[in-house]
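Hi, here's the filled form for the chain we discussed.

Project: internal
Contact: R.S.
Residues: 151
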Amino acid sequence: MTTVGAVIEISQRDVETIVGRMIDAVRPSQRLLDSIGSLLAGSAVERIDDTNRGPDGTAWPEWSKDYADWRAARGGEQTKLRLLGHLQQSITWNVGSDQVEVGASAEHAAVHQFGYKGIPARPYLGISDRDGERILQRVTRAIAEQIGGTT
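And the returned structure, exactly as it came back:
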């Protein structure tokens, strides 16, 4: 009977290099965080312009009759949170050393996100299931690139 064997030698330097790459891989890069911020800001704009649903998929409440009449008098293409486009234009993201923040600076942004004095909340900021999947894909790709693999 013939026995076949192999010896694999891994040096301390090889182990240190691999571990270093793994540590770097789990630390988010500015490029990755910027990509995630762009994704989430785009999803918020899509909710306002197209879906009229919160990140959890819940449809936004209808307008009151009086407000619907007021909006109809202004004409043009409108959705529940779109009249002139100021809210969408104010959505931005800021990248920190290990985080990304997505928000809106329009004066009425918080009123729509959280509701206020009889105005129901119509949340547009947040992470949907679809966003979560897309973020995971980007993170997986970034880790694979960092440690030298492919996806």
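Let me know if anything looks off before we file it.
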